[in-house]
Design brief:
Number of domains: 1
Order of helices and strands: HHHHH
Strand content: under 5%
Largest sheet: none
Radius of gyration: 15 Å
Oligomer: single chain
Amino acid sequence: MNNVASILLLVFLALTFLQSGYEKIFYWKENVNWLKEHFSKTILKNQVGLALLHLLILELISGILCVVGAIQLVTKSGREFGFYGAVFSCICLLMMLFGQRLAKDYDGARTIVIYFIPAVMAVYWLN
């Protein structure tokens, strides 16, 4: 297996985003209420529900693409889905980073960077 590191990164990203999507779907109201408070002093204060929906959709796309991409690498049938999964993962993380910086939650932003590094590594390796 020449793609072990790429497979591991895709599994990591898939778990991250599918679990996050699950949390958003099944705890939608709690997430929206917490985020309304979190963004109450930002330009996003009236757009929390819509922004969260956009993020949810992108997270699910990212997670599914990463799963399919990992399967593709295991079966040696290509790397396109993994590449796009990694790219969508980076887009999700950049959206979250923007929100955290806007809310002046610098610890939250720092945490997102920890996830962004492996996502960029996956984009690089799968390109």
